[in-house]
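User: I'm writing a tutorial on reading structure tokens. Could you give me a worked example: one chain, its sequence, then its tokens, then a sentence or two explaining what the tokens reveal?
Assistant: Sure. Here is the example chain.
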Amino acid sequence: MIGIAGAPGSGVRTLAADLAAGAPDLEFRILASDLRDHARCALTLLCASDDPADAAVEQRLRAALAASGLAWSVLTGPPPARLAQARAALQRALAPPPEESAHAPRWHWHCERCGDADCERHRLPRL
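And here are its predicted structure tokens:
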């Protein structure tokens, strides 16, 4: 189940309908701020509100989700942008975990001046 939360004017109902139309095999539910409901979800999509009156409620929900360790993602912008962000969040959340290999090389960042990841430039503070 995928939870969708947000203030009444944040477009949660439209987003839920659009997502359900594009992914009929998934269950989408509009949720309130009760974390017990969010805990039953594979992911909670939080629609950010543009209305300053909703800011306090939204901040409390964000803080509760962050403290809970549950999977969640904030969606912002106009409805088409929110839908695109929601689809991307769903792909990340529902994708199978990558196969870890004990023999896979560890990733190293290489600076543009040399190929040494342990270069002294990396230890210097940025000015």
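What the tokens reveal: The chain is about 35% helix and 15% strand. The CA atoms of residues 111 and 119 lie 8 Å apart.
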